[in-house]
Amino acid sequence: MKKQLLLGALLMGAVCANAQIEKIVVDGSAASLGAEATAITGGTVLGSSDNITVKAAYDDSYKVVSCAFQGYNNVIVNGESFGFGDGVQGSTNPTGQKLVDAETSTPPTAGAVIQIDVKKDGYLVVVSKLSSNKEYYVWEGDATWAAPVAYSLYMDWSAAANAEHPTISYSWPADAEFGYLDFAAADLDKYVDLATGKARWPEKVVLGADAEKVGKNGVGVIVFPVAAEAGSYLIQAAGSKISVPGVIFSENPITDLQLTGADEDGNPLAITFLGEGGGTGVNGIQATESVVEGQTYDLGGRPATKGLLIQKGKAKRFVK
């Protein structure tokens, strides 16, 4: 069943001075996983907090993998720090997913898919080791019915040695009512290839659909709004197995987002994707999504100038 977003509830979460942040570790310990792949059943809990439960969506074999990458091993979300190292990864590429339209797109029905159950409205930040040439999807629902959710992806791309694009960051276009992928968006083709029913690779979103393959790894996050009424969300890669060391839940929109760590010589590393953390991008280049003074956001944490606007974690105004 589709969620019915309650604007009042979201607004209360946005303006709450003591809004909650929960950090869920997904390092394999909750399911007694190790370096060797172990068969687990769908529904096996991989980590949990008061309002969030992370599970394996389907039967598969999971193992513990390292998710820190090139010195980056910490995420800062709205001022809260989350250190990560090991995460979990399934063994089988997901199958069944296809983007068609708002009503008949199909979620994955098997493979290495992470399910996240939620009990409260808010925003999820899923930490992951990411690849620039793999597809990523978020679905609201389960294998029987699910809708593609518009998400934001932020990723270190230092391995690409691409001075013009030291990071990858973008947001899928969202419909105004539910936050699902907006299939009517004028720029939909930038993010989705409807001819094949697939999401475009992160590098294709940034460099263009006709750009030559780069194929580099990084570490980053996938961010999306969630509603308690919806209950469950699925997150996956395609042509690969998503690896997740942790999930962060915030009642507030994500307006402060940084990736930090240290290089092999102990020198600090920092990328500021959102907010005013003061960090610089790779090779000293200011991250392209760093926020200017006075930036406002929509309820999904995306820069915006219309609708219900959030500034520095507080509701500011509604602009038609």
Total beta strands: 23
Envelope shape? globular
Question: How much helix is in the residues?
Answer: under 10%
Number of helices: 2
Give the averaged pLDDT, no decimals.
84
Measured between the Cα atoms of the first and last residue, the distance is 29 Å
Q: Report the uncertain regions.
A: 4-18, 278-295, 306-320
Gyration radius from CA atoms, angstroms: 18 Å
Query: What fraction strand?
Result: 35-45%
Largest sheet: 9 strands, antiparallel
H/E topology pattern:
HEEEEEEEEEEEEEEEEHEEEEEEE
- Helix vs. strand class: mainly beta
Strand-helix topology:
Blueprint: H1 7-15, E1 21-25, E2 38-40, E3 45-48, E4 52-56, E5 60-66, E6 72-77, E7 80-83, E8 86-89, E9 114-118, E10 122-131, E11 135-141, E12 146-148, E13 152-156, E14 167-171, E15 192-193, E16 198-199, H2 202-207, E17 217-226, E18 232-238, E19 243-250, E20 257-262, E21 268-274, E22 307-311, E23 314-319
Antiparallel strand pairs: 1-19, 2-5, 3-4, 4-9, 5-8, 6-7, 6-20, 8-19, 9-18, 10-17, 10-19, 11-12, 11-18, 13-14, 13-17, 15-16, 20-21, 22-23
Account of the protein in words:
- With about 325 residues, this protein is mainly beta.
- The chain has helices at about 5-15, 200-205, and strands spanning about 20-25, 40, 45-50, 50-55, 60-65, 70-75, 80-85, 85-90, 115-120, 120-130, 135-140, 145-150, 150-155, 165-170, 190-195, 200, 215-225, 230-240, 245-250, 255-260, 270-275, 305-310, 315-320.
- Helix content is about 5%, strand content about 40%.
- Strands 1, 2, 5, 8, 10, 13, 14, 17 and 19 form a nine-stranded antiparallel sheet that branches. Strands 3-4-9-18-11-12 form a six-stranded antiparallel sheet, with no helix packed on it. The chain has a four-stranded antiparallel sheet with strand order 7-6-20-21, with no helix packed on it.
- Residues about 5-20, about 280-295 and about 305-320 have low confidence and may be disordered.
- It has two helices and 23 strands.
